[in-house]
Design goal:
heterodimer; A: 446 residues; mainly alpha; two-stranded antiparallel ribbon; two-stranded antiparallel sheet; 16 helices; B: 482 residues; globular
Chain lengths: 446, 482
């Protein structure tokens, strides 16, 4: 990878704008809200719309400029945060054939969802909160996608995680929403160990977190610069992080519950961008995956397994958003399998097309239900639905078992709860009880 | 003594004297003047002096100012980078407490006790003499115990605190006596100095709340007032004592410090894990405070500047962020009593601004990008992994549990159905000022950490230099001592 930091030029300014614009929007609407004086609904949506639309235009301009240069990588050095001894942290962004198309469609989708949410959440008590979190998400997404080092990617990943959890719990007065938000956050946090661990391995192996020290050449034809065990370790850890973010087996249970959030956030997070964050990270590390076939085949197995699991479980869902969640999961699994099989442009095209289609479906879902009820009323009865299912082709007993398996979501959640979560919580509760008894004893038994 | 040193020592003494002047004013003007105003004035004066001192350190030549160094075994007054870092930090924490404290908890006697405690803490942070440190430990322990006893229902907690701190004080007095007789930071020290070091380490372990002496730490958050808990725990006097008496031994990093660092790592992970299953907010804050303050020790025995910088950065970042969480909790309790997190409390509609502040302080604790703790975590993990892989792994586990605990706590307090009789409590201007100020520091230093980290690097370098300075002539006696 010919990584030569460039002096500020048009591309650098346009790439930097991808961070500056949503972060400024976040500050403009967030600081008055923190001070108890939220901006009006119209101003709020206009500020966020201005940020995302300007980002979209800037990203298109970068795409054109990069295309005219044959998609050679462009590194933007925004500055060094700090330096202690040999350890330093700097903000480097990378514009190349992977990051710029991704930014184009992510900022475009954020802008569209912003326009939709302005109407959809009109007079909702958490109106400003939604747009603050959307701006935070946009900042994090652009930071992650354009990152030129694992440290910057990690920071963006964290923004995505917290904004996602807070939007799932947007309707905080509902118990289910709060439980779902906490479940999603815990999953993210467990998988955060993967990305954090990868960051640590990269730092120990190369001395910095820069991708330039990990692989050469421009995406998608990079080649690995680290030895085989290091590549395997990094890819396994990154894959672990990606499994959680993309709701793959064994971390699928949070995704259908995440639909408790408002429809616009479900569309942008679980139909479009957040669910593909894992795929993006894996695509960024494609050179390492090429050098680590073990991880690649593991991805194929988990991706195909998740796709089958989600297809079966999704077929028995009784509400539209859950069905769409499982459909997203299926596609995310197929995309991970594609990455594992060594495809590069195919998963990128798959991500973009799936994200656009799924966002539209989720945004349309509330009015689709309304239309269906109106149609039923006009027809004087249910308009009818296809009753054919592949289960009918199976023997009755097997079909019944499969149905039970699907209703129980493959028992995945029950197994994780029984084998991991409950024993851990029980051990912690026992330790806490022991602490309390000990303190009572020290305090004279009161 | 050079003129710059006189300025520094004068600023340090002013810092310590201002709260005592406040106490005197309160005594003289009983009930004629608002105690909060006096306390704010006194601590603001201390903050001004502390900032002057910090400016002196950063603009000067990096040489510490000393007074009373001819006394046996240490400097009676020592003003260096660590002092310049800690005095403004303590002043900010105390100022925030004074601003947020509910009116009913702010009677004149309580304010006098708070200001006296603040003066003792300032005095502790400007001395490096073992005997002076032991005396100041005794003063603060006695004062804190009496404050806890005066809290409604605080007798049991006072007993817990008294028993643990009594043991710590005994070890401290015995240890410092041996250290003064045979200072291990001088070449040629013998068995008495080594024994003194181990006793001081035991005292530090107890006062710091490290496993297996940690139980008093969450207990004080549950049984005492939150102001007392924060004033006692946030300055981390025990860490300072270790930095002064255990760092800089003649044979490099002493075994006591390594033991403390390992106990601290276990405490950090254990505290964060227990925070996940707490049943009330005070328990959550107590466990988080125990865990985060232990993290400081993870870097204190480090041999690279990165690790020491990380430890110092966590000292400040976790202290300010936990002060913020503790004060938001106090503000919530003052409106509706103690808060359970066994079930969803639905307090968001009641106090939306406090919900936002609680969340932001929580993010500042859990190492969210853009906050000082993100930088601190990065430094300590990078540094500790250079030294010991197990340390880095334990720190990562700690951050995972701490984050889950904070977000669980936030959802449990503010999420859930809104009680039918809930009324909306507006945040008070003084609360908003305190919270905004703390957040401005945490996010400001997180977004632009360069100058602050450079200053921490100087402090770390001075600590490491003192180690290397003493280590060189002492090499032949290392084997004899142990």
């Amino acid at each position: 990878m010919n990584v030569v930091p460039h002096a500020p030029d048009a591309i650098s300014c346009l790439v930097a704008w991808q961070l500056v614009a949503p972060a400024t929007a976040l500050a403009i609407i967030g600081l008055p809200a923190l001070n108890g004086r939220s901006l009006s609904e119209r101003t709020t949506t206009r500020v966020v719309a201005a940020a995302f639309s300007s980002c979209f235009v800037a990203a298109l301009a970068v795409l054109v400029l990069l295309a005219s240069r044959g998609f050679t990588q462009h590194v933007v050095h925004l500055g060094q945060l700090f330096e202690v001894g040999h350890h330093s942290a700097s903000i480097d962004l990378v514009a190349d054939g992977l990051s710029v198309p991704y930014v184009c469609f992510s900022t475009g989708l954020c802008g569209l969802v912003n326009a939709f949410a302005g109407k959809y959440l009109h007079r909702e008590p958490g109106f400003t909160r939604f747009f603050i979190l959307l701006a935070l998400f946009g900042t994090g997404m652009n930071l992650m996608v354009l990152s030129g080092s694992i440290d910057v990617m990690f920071a963006g990943w964290e923004f995505l995680g917290i904004s996602s959890a807070l939007l799932i719990g947007f309707f905080h007065e509902r118990r289910n929403a709060v439980d779902a938000a906490l479940r999603a956050f815990v999953t993210y946090r467990i998988c955060y160990v993967g990305l954090f661990g990868a960051s640590v391995v990269i730092h120990r192996a190369t001395g910095t977190g820069d991708f330039a020290t990990l692989f050469t050449s421009t995406w998608p034809h990079a080649s690995c610069l680290v030895d085989h065990p290091t590549a395997v370790a990094i890819t396994l850890l990154v894959a672990f992080a990606a499994l959680g973010k993309s709701a793959q087996v064994p971390f699928t249970s949070w995704l259908p519950r995440a639909m408790e959030g408002p429809t616009p956030s479900s569309a942008i997070f679980y139909g479009a961008l957040s669910i593909h964050a894992g795929a993006y990270v894996l695509l960024r590390c494609e050179a390492l995956l090429d050098a680590a076939p073990l991880t690649a085949w593991l991805l194929v197995a988990i991706g195909v397994g998740t796709a089958l699991h989600a297809a079966v479980v999704g077929s028995v869902q009784t509400d539209l958003k859950s069905m769409l969640a499982y459909s997203s999961m299926t596609q995310a699994g197929i995309i991970l399998a594609e990455i594992g099989l060594g495809f590069r442009l195919l998963p990128l095209v798959h991500v973009c097309s799936h994200a656009i289609l799924r966002s539209l479906q989720i945004l349309r879902s509330p009015s689709a239900m309304h239309d269906r009820h109106e149609l039923a009323a006009a027809l004087g009865g249910h308009p009818g639905a296809s009753t054919w299912s592949f289960v009918r082709l199976l023997p009755t007993g097997l079909g019944r078992h499969l149905y039970h398996l699907a209703l129980e979501r493959g028992f995945e959640e029950a197994i994780v709860l029984r084998a991991v979560v409950r024993p851990l919580l029980a051990a912690l509760a026992a330790a806490d009880a022991f602490e309390r008894r000990w303190v009572r004893l020290l305090g004279g038994g009161e | 003594m050079i003129p710059g040193s006189i300025t520094a020592i004068a600023a340090a003494l002013t810092c310590m004297a201002a709260p005592l002047v406040g106490v005197a004013v309160l005594r003289l003007t009983e009930r004629r003047i608002d105690p909060r105003l006096v306390a704010i004035g006194a601590i603001a004066a201390s903050l001004g002096a502390a900032v002057t001192l910090a400016a002196w350190w950063h603009l000067g030549n990096g040489q510490p100012a000393r007074f009373g160094h001819r006394l046996a075994a240490g400097d009676l007054v020592l003003v260096d980078g660590l002092t310049a870092l800690l005095l403004p930090y303590v002043a900010i924490v105390d100022l925030a407490i004074v601003l947020v404290a509910p009116r009913r908890a702010f009677a004149s006697a309580g304010v006098r006790r708070l200001l006296t405690g603040t003066a003792v803490t300032f005095a502790t942070f400007i001395t490096a003499h073992p005997a002076a440190l032991a005396a100041l430990w005794a003063a603060s322990i006695v004062a804190t115990r009496s404050t806890i006893r005066s809290t409604l229902g605080g007798q049991a907690t006072a007993r817990v605190y008294g028993r643990m701190m009594g043991l710590a004080l005994t070890c401290m007095v015995a240890g410092t006596t041996l250290l003064a007789a045979d200072p291990p930071w001088l070449a040629g020290s013998g068995a008495r100095g080594a024994a003194g070091g181990w006793l001081v380490a035991l005292a530090v372990m107890i006062r710091k709340g490290l496993i297996p002496f940690h139980s008093w730490y969450p207990a004080i958050f549950s049984g005492a007032s939150l102001a007392t808990a924060l004033v006692v725990t946030m300055p981390q006097v025990a860490t300072y004592t270790a930095a002064r008496l255990l760092v800089g031994h003649a044979d490099g990093v002493p075994h006591e410090l390594v033991l403390l660092a390992n106990a601290a790592l276990l405490t950090a992970a254990y505290g964060a894990a227990l925070a996940v299953v707490q049943r009330d907010v005070r328990g959550l804050v107590g466990m988080l405070a125990m865990s985060q303050s232990a993290m400081v020790f993870a870097g204190l025995s480090g041999t690279v500047p990165t690790e020491l910088c990380g430890a110092l950065a966590i000292w400040v970042s976790s202290g300010l962020a936990l002060t913020g969480i503790g004060l938001v909790t106090w503000a919530l309790e003052s409106r509706g009593g103690r808060i359970s997190i066994d079930t969803l409390q639905g307090r968001c509609a009641d106090a939306p601004a406090l919900a936002a502040f609680f969340l932001l302080f929580g993010l500042a604790v859990l190492g969210f990008p853009g906050t000082l703790s993100f930088v601190a975590d990065d430094l300590i993990i990078a540094g500790s992994l250079d030294d010991h892989v197990h340390a880095g792994i334990l720190v990562i586990i700690t951050t995972v549990f701490a984050a889950i605990a904070v977000i669980r706590g936030w959802f449990r307090v503010f999420g859930g159905p809104v009680p039918i009789d809930a009324c909306r409590h507006a945040i008070l201007p003084r609360e908003r000022v305190a919270f905004t100020g703390l957040l401005a520091i945490l996010f400001g230093l997180g977004l632009w950490p360069g100058p602050f980290i450079r200053s921490l690097e100087n402090v770390a370098a001075s600590l490491l230099a003192s180690r290397q300075h003493h280590a060189a002539p002492a090499a032949p006696v290392t084997g004899d001592r142990r």
